[in-house]
# Entry
Amino acid sequence: MHRFLLLLTLICLPVFLAGAAWAAAEAGERGESWNNLIWRLLNVVLFAGALFYLVGKKAAAFFTNRATAIAQEIASLEARKLEAARNLEAIGQRLGRLEEERRAILAEYEGQGQALKEAIVAQAEKAAAQILSQARASARNEINAAMDALRSRMAEEIAKATERLLLERLTPAEHARIIDSYLAKVVIH
# Structure
């Protein structure tokens, strides 16, 4: 603070002296130059002293407080800068974890999709096996029905052929004897 006042004095003193010398040069012809210069210098010194006495301590306190406030603000900004750097790092880590989570979710969905696909294929294979089983049973039933129809038809054809053969070889007397024989069996039983 003393350096500042000394510097201010060293800068202001030549300016005031130059102003006083210029004013004295104007009044030099009248003989008032040195007296006027001395009074003016004394006036400036008294004004600077009064100004320093009234404002000096407050100005020093103001500049000291201002320097302290600036230092505190710089420290606060540094702390905020460090906090922002930590937040940025945390966000970067979260983004990295989000990428890992995205991959995990995609893998999980792919696994679920694969499991669903396998379940659908298994269900389709089971349904195909049922359909095939039903088709085999239906074919077996149709074959059995066709075999029964064929047997029935063959029995009818054999009966007709046998009847024709019998009618061709059998005489009316033999025919009557066979009928009587069967009627006797039926009546007896």
